[in-house]
Design goal:
5 strands, globular, five-stranded mixed beta sheet
C-alpha cells in the first residue's frame, strides 16, 4: 500500500516536470538555479538564453503550486563509445523545498529522457551532491578537472 502511494506521488512529481523553453519559463526557473549559482544574475541568464539553446542547452523544471521548485540543465554530446552522452550541468532546488523528492524525480525524468535520446550514458560532475547521485544509482567514474578561460560574455 505504501509503495503504491509512493509510486503515485513520484509519477505526479515527474508529470509536473517539463522543459522550460520561453523567456518567461527561464525567468521562473532562474530562482531555483540561483540556489546553486548565487552569482548568476537574472538579466545575464535571460540575455544568454537564445545562445545557450542554440548550443544545445536544455533547462527542465518541476512545478509545484505554480512555481518552479527544482531545475536541471543538460546537453547531449556525441561520444565514440556510447554513441551519445547526456551531460547534466546543473541541478538545483529552491531553499525550503529540499527533501521533498523534487530533485530525485527530476533525475528520474532525465534518466528516462537519456534513454529516449539514445544516450549510452549520463555524466555529471559534482563537488557537493555526490551522495545524492550515488543514492540514485550513479557511480563515481573519474576525476573532474577544470580550467577557466577569460572570455567575452557579451
Amino acid at each position: 500500500m505504501l509503495e503504491s502511494r509512493l509510486q503515485t506521488e513520484a509519477k505526479e512529481l515527474t508529470s509536473n516536470c517539463r522543459e522550460l523553453t520561453s523567456l518567461e519559463d527561464w525567468a521562473l526557473g532562474w530562482e531555483a538555479l540561483k540556489t546553486l549559482r548565487p552569482k548568476l544574475e537574472k538579466s545575464d541568464f535571460l540575455a544568454r538564453k537564445n545562445q545557450l539553446q542554440l548550443d544545445g542547452y536544455h533547462l527542465l523544471g518541476i512545478f509545484a503550486e505554480g512555481k518552479v521548485v527544482s531545475v536541471a540543465s543538460y546537453t547531449v554530446s556525441p561520444h565514440p563509445v556510447f554513441q551519445r552522452e547526456m551531460i547534466i550541468h546543473d541541478m538545483s532546488t529552491l531553499a525550503g523545498e529540499e527533501g521533498k523528492g523534487f530533485a530525485s524525480n527530476l533525475l528520474q525524468y532525465l534518466d528516462t529522457l537519456a534513454v529516449q535520446l539514445n544516450c549510452g550514458r549520463t555524466f555529471v560532475a559534482t563537488a557537493k551532491a555526490a551522495e545524492f547521485y550515488k543514492k540514485n544509482d550513479y557511480e563515481a567514474h573519474a576525476t573532474a578537472l577544470k580550467k577557466v578561460h577569460a572570455v567575452d560574455n557579451k
